[in-house]
Amino acid sequence: TRERSAVTPELPTIDEAGLPGYEMSTWYGLFVQGATPRGVIARLQEEVAQILNQPAMKERIAADGMTVVASTPGQFALFLARESGKYTRIIEAAGIKAID
């Protein structure tokens, strides 16, 4: 990521180590079928966010070097669109082709 890890703050980011603009992160998300009722999605998001925002859960996740982001479905959709666009540009610039 762009920030140093709280678990290993002595390690520089890849950007700081000499590869400017490099950014790579790992993320997790929940996906449901497109036909899932909005009320079910809202309830799922609400319950998961409540769990992820508990201090003990945040501490456990932070111990693994991760940060909790309990976003809404709309925020997650925007994040996915940005990630998709970023990797599309990288793939096109590098001339990477799919293998059949």
Features:
100 residues; mainly alpha; 3 helices
Task: Give a short synopsis of this structure.
This protein is mainly α and 100 residues long.
Q: How would you describe the shape?
A: flat
Mean pLDDT: 92
Strands, count: 0
- The fraction of residues in strands falls at under 5%
Main sheet properties: none
Low-confidence runs: none
Helical percentage? 40-55%
Structural class: mainly alpha
Write down the domain tally.
1
How large is the count of helical segments?
Answer: 3
Can you tell me about this structure?
- The protein is mostly helical.
- The protein has one domain (1-70).
- The chain is 46% helix and 0% strand.
- The chain has three helices and no strands.
- The chain has helices spanning 38-52, 55-63, 73-94.
- The longest helix is centred in the last third of the chain and has 22 residues, at 73-94.
- The two termini are 32 Å apart.
- The model has no long low-confidence stretch (mean pLDDT 92).
